[in-house]
Amino acid sequence: MTTSNRSLAPFATSRTWLAVLAAGAALTLAACDKPGNQTAGEKLDSAVAKTEQAASDAKAKTEQAAADAKTGMAGATADVKEAAKDATAAVTATVDDAAITASVSAGLAKDPDLSAIKIDVDTKGGAVSLKGPAPTAAAKSRAEEIAKAVQGVKSVNNQLEVKG
Questions:
Q1: Side by side, which strands form the sheet with 155-162?
Q2: Using an 8 Å Cβ cutoff, are 119 and 101 in contact?
Q3: How crowded is the C-beta side of 72, counted as CA atoms within 13 Å?
Q4: Contact between 111 and 135 (Cβ < 8 Å)
Q5: Closest CA to 102 of 157, 146, 161
Q6: Which of 106, 156, 95, 112 lies closest to 131, judged by CA?
Q7: Is 135 exposed, middle or buried, given 0-12, 13-18 or 19+ CB atoms closer than 10 A?
Q8: What PROSITE patterns does the record tag this protein with (predicted)?
């Protein structure tokens, strides 16, 4: 038996090594099944999925930002249009008031009793105010009638003081 044991001795050592290798392979395969131990292909697939999700999230955020910007621009455009309309109305009213003031002053300058007298004419929103001296009560009354006759005048506040 000694001979046969000797002839099997190299195989016994090989069997031991084979058993150790098989156990190591089994442990390695078992470790591959754990979630933290992914293959290169699985890691790549996971990275691609995360990248696709990030791109999808970025797209959604960009679309929302664009929609918000569009809404903001629409509101701003409406505000600008309203401001322009208000500014135009204010300029028109100012021009109208200036034209009324000029017309009233020109009418007063044509009256022989009022032309030499300094009468301040102020117009705001079509309301004319007359301030200063008037030589007579009749001249004061004529100044008011001259102002009322000008187109665009809504009211006249006659504060002229009769001197004399």
A1: 120-124, 127-134, 155-162
A2: no
A3: 6
A4: no
A5: 146
A6: 156
A7: middle
A8: BON, PROKAR_LIPOPROTEIN
The token duo for 120 is 């301040």
Which helix (H) or strand (E) segment holds residue 7: the answer is: helix 2-32
The CATH code belonging to domain 64-164 is 3.30.300
- Per-residue tokens: 73: 């621009």
Continuous segment of H or E residues that includes residue 130: strand 127-134
CA distance 164 to 160: 13
CA torsion sign for 140, 152, 99, 131 is positive
158 sits in which H/E element: strand 155-162
Task: Give the predicted TM-score (pTM) of the model.
Answer: 0.47
Higher pLDDT, 104 or 18: 104
At residue 61, does pLDDT exceed 50?
yes
Amino acid at 9: A
* pLDDT higher at 109 or 12: 109
What is the amino acid identity at position 100? I
Which of 83, 96, 74 is CA-nearest to residue 153? 96
Per domain, the residue ranges of the chain are 64-164
